[in-house]
Specification:
By secondary structure, this protein is α/β, with parallel strands linked by helices. A hairpin with a 5-residue loop joins strand 8 and strand 9. The longest helix has 14 residues. Helix 3 crosses helix 4 and helix 6 packs parallel to helix 7. It has a single domain, classed as Rossmann fold, CATH 3.40.50.150.
Protein backbone atom coordinates (compact mmCIF):
# COMPACT_ATOMS: atom_id res chain seq x y z
CA UNK A 1 0.00 0.00 0.00
CA UNK A 2 1.33 3.44 -0.92
CA UNK A 3 2.25 5.74 1.96
CA UNK A 4 -0.39 8.32 1.01
CA UNK A 5 -3.07 5.61 1.09
CA UNK A 6 -1.80 4.22 4.38
CA UNK A 7 -1.89 7.67 5.99
CA UNK A 8 -5.36 8.38 4.61
CA UNK A 9 -6.80 5.08 5.81
CA UNK A 10 -5.15 5.62 9.18
CA UNK A 11 -6.97 8.94 9.47
CA UNK A 12 -10.29 7.37 8.54
CA UNK A 13 -9.82 4.64 11.12
CA UNK A 14 -8.84 7.15 13.80
CA UNK A 15 -11.65 9.59 12.94
CA UNK A 16 -14.39 7.13 11.97
CA UNK A 17 -16.81 8.21 14.70
CA UNK A 18 -16.28 11.91 13.89
CA UNK A 19 -16.96 11.16 10.22
CA UNK A 20 -20.11 9.27 11.20
CA UNK A 21 -21.31 12.16 13.35
CA UNK A 22 -20.88 14.62 10.47
CA UNK A 23 -22.13 12.62 7.49
CA UNK A 24 -24.48 9.87 8.71
CA UNK A 25 -27.57 12.07 8.44
CA UNK A 26 -26.42 14.63 5.87
CA UNK A 27 -29.12 15.11 3.25
CA UNK A 28 -27.12 17.15 0.71
CA UNK A 29 -26.79 14.24 -1.73
CA UNK A 30 -30.19 12.60 -1.22
CA UNK A 31 -31.62 13.90 -4.49
CA UNK A 32 -28.78 12.24 -6.40
CA UNK A 33 -29.41 8.96 -4.55
CA UNK A 34 -33.10 9.29 -5.41
CA UNK A 35 -32.14 9.73 -9.05
CA UNK A 36 -30.00 6.59 -8.85
CA UNK A 37 -32.91 4.63 -7.40
CA UNK A 38 -35.17 5.83 -10.21
CA UNK A 39 -32.73 4.57 -12.81
CA UNK A 40 -32.49 1.07 -11.33
CA UNK A 41 -35.57 -0.63 -12.77
CA UNK A 42 -34.64 -4.20 -11.83
CA UNK A 43 -36.61 -5.72 -8.95
CA UNK A 44 -34.45 -7.06 -6.08
CA UNK A 45 -31.27 -5.83 -7.75
CA UNK A 46 -27.83 -6.90 -6.56
CA UNK A 47 -25.82 -3.77 -5.63
CA UNK A 48 -22.11 -3.30 -4.95
CA UNK A 49 -21.18 -0.29 -2.84
CA UNK A 50 -17.56 0.86 -2.85
CA UNK A 51 -16.20 3.09 -0.08
CA UNK A 52 -19.30 2.71 2.10
CA UNK A 53 -17.90 4.47 5.18
CA UNK A 54 -20.18 4.03 8.22
CA UNK A 55 -23.10 3.01 6.00
CA UNK A 56 -24.67 6.43 5.46
CA UNK A 57 -25.43 5.89 1.77
CA UNK A 58 -26.29 2.24 2.35
CA UNK A 59 -28.91 3.10 4.94
CA UNK A 60 -30.49 5.81 2.81
CA UNK A 61 -30.70 3.60 -0.29
CA UNK A 62 -32.42 0.86 1.68
CA UNK A 63 -34.90 3.38 3.09
CA UNK A 64 -35.91 4.21 -0.50
CA UNK A 65 -35.54 0.73 -2.00
CA UNK A 66 -35.83 -2.04 0.60
CA UNK A 67 -35.50 -4.57 -2.22
CA UNK A 68 -31.83 -3.66 -2.78
CA UNK A 69 -29.48 -6.55 -2.01
CA UNK A 70 -26.27 -4.69 -1.13
CA UNK A 71 -22.68 -5.87 -0.68
CA UNK A 72 -20.79 -2.89 0.77
CA UNK A 73 -17.02 -2.45 1.02
CA UNK A 74 -14.51 -0.04 2.50
CA UNK A 75 -10.76 -0.11 3.12
CA UNK A 76 -11.01 1.32 6.65
CA UNK A 77 -11.77 -1.40 9.19
CA UNK A 78 -13.30 1.02 11.71
CA UNK A 79 -15.76 2.23 9.09
CA UNK A 80 -16.86 -1.34 8.44
CA UNK A 81 -17.31 -1.89 12.18
CA UNK A 82 -19.61 1.14 12.39
CA UNK A 83 -21.50 0.25 9.22
CA UNK A 84 -22.23 -3.25 10.50
CA UNK A 85 -23.96 -1.70 13.52
CA UNK A 86 -25.72 1.04 11.56
CA UNK A 87 -27.11 -1.21 8.84
CA UNK A 88 -27.13 -4.74 10.30
CA UNK A 89 -29.17 -6.24 7.46
CA UNK A 90 -26.36 -5.59 4.95
CA UNK A 91 -23.16 -7.56 4.31
CA UNK A 92 -20.05 -5.41 4.78
CA UNK A 93 -16.45 -6.32 4.10
CA UNK A 94 -13.01 -4.70 4.16
CA UNK A 95 -11.76 -4.35 0.60
CA UNK A 96 -9.54 -2.05 -1.44
CA UNK A 97 -11.45 -0.60 -4.40
CA UNK A 98 -8.45 -1.41 -6.56
CA UNK A 99 -9.21 -5.10 -6.02
CA UNK A 100 -12.94 -5.33 -6.79
CA UNK A 101 -12.33 -7.70 -9.70
CA UNK A 102 -11.62 -10.34 -7.06
CA UNK A 103 -15.37 -10.38 -6.33
CA UNK A 104 -16.68 -13.40 -8.18
CA UNK A 105 -20.11 -12.09 -9.18
CA UNK A 106 -21.79 -9.40 -11.23
CA UNK A 107 -24.15 -6.64 -10.16
CA UNK A 108 -27.14 -4.67 -11.38
CA UNK A 109 -25.70 -1.42 -9.99
CA UNK A 110 -22.49 -0.13 -8.42
CA UNK A 111 -22.40 2.83 -6.05
CA UNK A 112 -19.12 4.63 -5.30
CA UNK A 113 -19.71 7.66 -3.11
CA UNK A 114 -16.62 9.84 -2.74
CA UNK A 115 -14.03 7.11 -3.08
CA UNK A 116 -12.41 8.70 -6.13
CA UNK A 117 -10.99 11.67 -4.21
CA UNK A 118 -8.49 9.16 -2.85
CA UNK A 119 -7.53 7.81 -6.27
CA UNK A 120 -5.28 9.24 -8.98
CA UNK A 121 -6.57 9.77 -12.52
CA UNK A 122 -5.04 6.46 -13.59
CA UNK A 123 -6.63 4.67 -10.65
CA UNK A 124 -10.00 6.26 -11.43
CA UNK A 125 -9.72 5.10 -15.03
CA UNK A 126 -9.01 1.55 -13.85
CA UNK A 127 -11.87 1.65 -11.35
CA UNK A 128 -14.34 2.72 -14.04
CA UNK A 129 -13.13 -0.13 -16.25
CA UNK A 130 -13.40 -2.57 -13.34
CA UNK A 131 -16.91 -1.40 -12.52
CA UNK A 132 -17.92 -1.90 -16.14
CA UNK A 133 -16.58 -5.46 -15.96
CA UNK A 134 -18.65 -6.22 -12.84
CA UNK A 135 -21.91 -4.70 -14.11
CA UNK A 136 -24.57 -6.72 -15.86
CA UNK A 137 -25.62 -5.33 -19.28
CA UNK A 138 -27.95 -2.41 -18.65
CA UNK A 139 -26.56 -2.00 -15.13
CA UNK A 140 -26.20 1.39 -13.49
CA UNK A 141 -23.11 3.06 -12.05
CA UNK A 142 -23.08 6.00 -9.62
CA UNK A 143 -19.91 7.72 -8.47
CA UNK A 144 -18.99 11.06 -6.97
CA UNK A 145 -15.81 13.07 -6.49
CA UNK A 146 -14.57 16.62 -5.97
CA UNK A 147 -13.97 18.93 -8.93
CA UNK A 148 -10.63 20.61 -9.35
CA UNK A 149 -7.31 20.65 -11.14
CA UNK A 150 -4.89 17.87 -10.29
CA UNK A 151 -2.34 20.48 -9.21
CA UNK A 152 -4.45 20.96 -6.06
CA UNK A 153 -4.02 17.32 -5.07
CA UNK A 154 -2.11 16.63 -1.88
CA UNK A 155 -2.36 16.12 1.86
CA UNK A 156 -4.95 18.20 3.67
CA UNK A 157 -7.01 18.17 6.84
CA UNK A 158 -10.79 17.89 6.77
CA UNK A 159 -13.76 19.12 8.76
CA UNK A 160 -13.90 15.81 10.67
CA UNK A 161 -10.22 14.85 11.02
CA UNK A 162 -8.78 17.59 13.22
CA UNK A 163 -5.02 17.68 12.65
CA UNK A 164 -5.02 14.27 10.93
CA UNK A 165 -4.42 14.45 7.18
CA UNK A 166 -5.78 12.65 4.15
CA UNK A 167 -4.40 12.72 0.61
CA UNK A 168 -7.03 14.19 -1.71
CA UNK A 169 -7.04 13.97 -5.51
CA UNK A 170 -9.12 16.44 -7.52
CA UNK A 171 -10.65 15.47 -10.87
CA UNK A 172 -12.16 17.03 -13.98
CA UNK A 173 -15.55 16.06 -15.38
CA UNK A 174 -14.39 15.76 -18.99
CA UNK A 175 -11.74 13.19 -18.03
CA UNK A 176 -14.21 11.06 -16.08
CA UNK A 177 -16.86 11.27 -18.80
CA UNK A 178 -14.27 10.15 -21.35
CA UNK A 179 -13.52 7.07 -19.24
CA UNK A 180 -17.21 6.23 -19.06
CA UNK A 181 -17.61 6.51 -22.83
CA UNK A 182 -14.50 4.43 -23.48
CA UNK A 183 -15.88 1.68 -21.26
CA UNK A 184 -19.22 1.48 -23.03
CA UNK A 185 -21.40 3.52 -20.69
CA UNK A 186 -24.43 5.34 -22.08
CA UNK A 187 -27.11 7.77 -20.86
CA UNK A 188 -24.46 9.62 -18.88
CA UNK A 189 -25.92 12.08 -16.40
CA UNK A 190 -23.72 14.63 -14.60
CA UNK A 191 -24.93 16.42 -11.47
CA UNK A 192 -22.80 19.29 -10.15
CA UNK A 193 -23.51 19.71 -6.45
CA UNK A 194 -22.27 22.68 -4.47
CA UNK A 195 -20.67 21.87 -1.13
CA UNK A 196 -20.32 24.55 1.60
CA UNK A 197 -16.77 24.58 2.98
CA UNK A 198 -16.05 25.53 6.63
CA UNK A 199 -14.53 28.85 5.51
CA UNK A 200 -17.74 29.83 3.71
CA UNK A 201 -16.52 29.00 0.19
CA UNK A 202 -18.52 26.72 -2.10
CA UNK A 203 -16.73 23.88 -3.86
CA UNK A 204 -18.21 21.66 -6.54
CA UNK A 205 -18.82 17.93 -6.28
CA UNK A 206 -19.22 15.89 -9.46
CA UNK A 207 -21.81 13.10 -9.48
CA UNK A 208 -22.08 10.75 -12.45
CA UNK A 209 -24.86 8.28 -13.13
CA UNK A 210 -24.60 6.11 -16.25
CA UNK A 211 -25.82 2.87 -17.81
CA UNK A 212 -23.58 0.07 -19.03
CA UNK A 213 -24.35 -0.61 -22.67
Amino acid sequence: MEEKTSITIGTYNKCAVAFQDKFMNMDLYHKSYDRLCERIETVNPRILEIGCGPGNITRYLLSKRPDFDILATDLAEKMIELATVNVPQTKFMVMDCREILSINETFDAIVCGFCMPYLSDDECAKLIADMAALLNPGGTVYFSTMEGDDSRSGFETTSFSGSNEVYVHYHQSDFLEKQLVQNGFENIELIVQGYPEPDGAISNDLIFIATRG
